[in-house]
């Protein structure tokens, strides 16, 4: 992806959601699996974080562990139609099954649930690498590959078809209206920076021309200014390439220990709060 030269405008609908879960997403969206490069991670052993939990409540996903090789840096895995069977509570050691779940998502023409799960693996314990250009490029390319609508680039693969379509042709709305439902990808057990990862996923989704992003922060305190940054970037009409350059500049300063601010604070001007008030009054 030629992100350095990208003039793509950001998708304008990036909703910041402090509570809730990706698997409960009500809109049609790619639901991101914060994956291990080996699909499923520790689902069949001791793992019990985001990916493993998804494989427990949508057990059909486990089949993929038998057939999928480890993902390369330019690969993602999209899984269509996995049905959810379980409700749960907790996370990690507190994870518990609490009852059956009735999946009511509509079906496509092939009888599959209209559930799209995309597995993308982040850098594991990246420390300094996540601020180096090579690490940033790796992550933004991984997000872009995961969010790209592959059906538009493959002549022998049909996208989701609307089960109500009379002519059995793919419904335009069924594909073009599909957004991204994600959160703090690679930031838990993998140790990534939530502020950088949120921006990288916004870059990837916008470059892939996804119409919206629903971003679940899971009440992460470091993302308290995320909505403010989104509105500031949109208001100033930045392109994907322009924000990318700012991420690279910030990361360079972090490596040189020239700044210790989080990216969101670093990006916003000190008087941004006053500017927002002025903007709202215009």
From TrEMBL:
GO terms for biological process: ATP generation from poly-ADP-D-ribose; carbohydrate metabolic process; nucleotide-sugar metabolic process; regulation of DNA repair. Keywords: Hydrolase. The keyword Ion transport does not apply. Residues 13-224 form the PARG catalytic Macro domain. Coiled coil: none annotated. GO terms for cellular component: cytoplasm; nucleus. It comes from the Eukaryota. GO terms for molecular function: poly(ADP-ribose) glycohydrolase activity. This is Poly(ADP-ribose) glycohydrolase 1.
């Amino acid at each position: 992806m030629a992100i350095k030269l990208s003039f793509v405008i950001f998708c304008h609908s990036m909703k910041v959601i402090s509570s809730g879960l990706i698997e409960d997403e009500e809109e049609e969206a790619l639901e991101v699996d914060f994956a291990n490069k080996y699909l499923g991670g520790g689902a069949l052993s001791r793992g019990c974080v985001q990916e493993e939990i998804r494989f427990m409540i949508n057990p059909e996903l486990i089949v993929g562990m038998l057939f999928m090789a480890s993902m390369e840096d330019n690969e993602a895995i999209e899984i269509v139609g996995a049905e959810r069977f379980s409700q749960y509570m907790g996370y990690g050691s507190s994870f518990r099954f609490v009852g059956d779940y009735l999946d009511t998502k509509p079906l496509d023409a092939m009888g599959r649930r209209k559930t799209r799960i995309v597995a993308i693996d982040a850098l594991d314990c990246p420390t300094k690498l996540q601020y180096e250009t090579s690490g940033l490029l790796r992550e933004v390319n991984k997000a872009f590959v995961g969010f790209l609508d592959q059906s538009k680039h493959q002549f022998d693969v049909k996208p989701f078809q609307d089960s109500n379509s009379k002519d059995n042709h793919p419904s335009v709305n069924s594909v073009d209206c599909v957004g991204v439902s994600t959160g703090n990808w690679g930031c838990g057990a993998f140790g990534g920076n939530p502020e950088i990862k949120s921006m990288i996923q916004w870059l990837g989704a916008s470059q892939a021309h996804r119409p919206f992003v629903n971003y679940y922060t899971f009440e992460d305190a470091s993302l308290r200014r995320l909505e403010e940054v989104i509105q500031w970037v949109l208001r100033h009409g930045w392109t994907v390439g322009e924000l990318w350059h700012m991420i690279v500049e910030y990361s360079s300063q972090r490596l040189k220990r020239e700044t210790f601010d989080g990216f969101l604070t670093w990006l916003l001007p000190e008087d941004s709060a006053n500017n927002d008030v002025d903007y709202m009054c215009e």
